[in-house]
Amino acid sequence: MNPLRHHAMRGDDLCRKLNASRSTLDRRMKAAIGRTPKEEILRVRFREVERLLRETELTIDVIAQQTGFAYSHYLQAAFKSAYGLTPGEFRGKEVA
To answer: Which of 15, 19, 72, 87 is deepest in the core (most CB within 10 A)?
Structure first.
């Protein structure tokens, strides 16, 4: 697992780990990959959330915990904002 994915799942402070200011890290990542660290971390987390919703019967609480969201309601709100569906609705559509 690459360092960003590892830190995204653990929720580590990338700025501290890389010894860079947030603005420097944001600017460098945006130039390199077109996304800020926050956007990339959410992208990686959501990809794992999607996989867990498709491939497991884990509860939303467990999925939130495993993917670095502090609370399941944060995951649900962020997921709905990004996908227009709740995680439960996404899971239901994937099964159907």
So the answer is: 87
